[in-house]
Amino acid sequence: QVLLVESGGGLVQAGDSLRLSCAASGRNIGTYPMGWFRQAPGKEREFVAVIGGSSSPTFYADSVLGRFIISRDNTKKTTDLQMNGLKPDDTAVYYCRLPRGRSEYWGQGTQVTVSS
Prior knowledge:
Blueprint (H helix, E strand, L loop, with lengths): L2 E5 L2 E4 L4 E8 L8 E6 L6 E6 L6 E3 L7 E6 L4 E6 L8 E9 L2 E4 L3 E6 L1
Parallel strand pairs: 2-11
Antiparallel strand pairs: 1-3, 3-8, 4-5, 4-9, 5-6, 7-8, 9-10, 9-11
């Protein structure tokens, strides 16, 4: 069983930065990729970024490329999402995801609100 808990969300102004963190519990967390998704009101959940088990490779959605940075610390079983140059369009609930075999695990989400 895997448990994911996100933290770090909040209310910021456009242009600000914010760092989200996802803490995982379970076995062999470092073996699996970890990713971030987000869901804005009235929209479907969308991919943001993913990082491989050994911190590579990394992939980003076009909408966040160059502004967001995903990283992980396998000793702490965490993955972080550094968000820079935030825009009002980045407002959403951000979720951490870990796929393992035929299963996938999600956190409860953390709200990010960017005011203009």
